[in-house]
Design goal:
Elements lengths: L5 E2 L1 E4 L17 H14 L3 E4 L12 H12 L5 E4 L9 H10 L3 E5 L3 E7 L4 E8 L3 H13 L3 E6 L2 H5 L2 H5 L8 E6 L9 H10 L5 E6 L4 H11 L2 E4 L16 H14 L3 E2 L2 H7 L7
Parallel strand pairs: 1-12, 2-3, 2-11, 3-4, 4-5, 5-8, 8-9, 9-10, 10-11
Antiparallel strand pairs: 6-7
Helix pairs in contact: 1-2, 1-9, 2-3
Length: about 290
């Protein structure tokens, strides 16, 4: 079956940096994440990208927290689970345990080291400035765990070099086709927020791959529109952007997905169901 006009909408529910001082709607607890996943699903999302949080909003890699998140989401809706693995540490044992024990359908995999920063034009200074380390050795170890656990990697490519340097992983047999790519735009140190950057990325990946765009900040809506026209999938959610297309603060993830679904239809494409998204991503049918 052909799915050229179908669009997988992913929703990044909470992220790792954002907090309720910035946006009151950001979910922290497993129950809150379960409720937000349901709202996103009802609005048209077929994939939920999830980070773990403590009950007061701090980042968490606690295995029991991720198990609780999985259970809270799955008892509410059949949305595809995509768990984050992003870490500044070289030790990936907490993330590996979550992949092995929770077995989400998808796990995000950051595909290269980069300067990762945010700059404030008002303050004339960097809000944060760090190096995000993702060596090939670290990527290999993540792929080993994902392959052992039958979890599909989602390759998060923040720059053209991340996308252009995947061939050794295919050559070693650690990365399998068809592959899923996400092009992250809007992070200082990575890809520019241009249609030309998206075109370069999509021309670099192997034929038969699925791809989508992750736009960080208010530029997200322009990038979603560009990806839709170019034939890609899209991601929205409070991890990436707090604001509706009209500039108003979002009241939750569901309303952001509603706007993404509307944009999808306005470009002449259709929102993929969970079953269709599973087929497009080469995942097995829902159990």
């Amino acid at each position: 079956m052909a799915y050229e006009d179908k669009v997988i909408i992913s929703c990044a529910l909470t992220g790792v940096f954002a907090n309720r001082d910035q946006c009151e709607a950001i979910p922290y607890t497993p129950v809150e994440l379960g409720e937000e996943a349901l709202r996103a699903y009802n609005a048209g999302a077929s994939v939920a990208h999830i980070h773990g949080r403590t009950d007061d909003g701090k980042p968490s890699w606690d295995l029991d927290t991720f198990k609780a998140i999985r259970d809270e989401v799955r008892k509410r809706c059949p949305i595809i689970l995509n768990f984050s693995t992003g870490t500044l540490d070289d030790d990936i044992s907490p993330q590996a345990a979550i992949i092995r024990e929770c077995r989400p359908e998808i796990a995000a995999l950051n595909m290269g080291t980069m300067n990762y920063a945010k700059y404030s034009t008002n303050r004339k200074k960097f809000v944060f400035d760090l190096v995000f380390p993702n060596t090939f050795g670290k990527i290999e170890r993540f792929l080993d765990v994902m392959n052992e656990s039958d979890v599909k990697p989602e390759l998060e490519c923040f720059d053209a070099g991340h996308t252009n340097s995947i061939w050794p992983l295919y050559d070693m047999g650690k990365l399998k086709k068809p592959t899923q790519f996400s092009f992250v735009t809007g992070v200082l140190g990575g890809l520019p927020t241009t249609v030309e950057a998206l075109q370069l990325q999509r021309q670099t990946i192997p034929p038969g791959s699925t791809w989508g765009v992750i736009g960080i900040g208010r530029v997200q809506w322009k990038l979603c529109a560009s990806a839709l026209v170019l034939g890609g999938n899209i991601r929205v959610g409070l991890e990436d952007n707090f604001y509706m297309p009209n500039g108003e603060m979002a009241s939750g993830n569901g309303v952001l997905v509603e706007q993404a679904a509307l944009l999808t239809r306005l470009t002449g494409r259709e929102v993929a169901s969970v079953a269709e998204a599973r087929a497009m991503l080469s995942l097995p049918p829902s159990p």
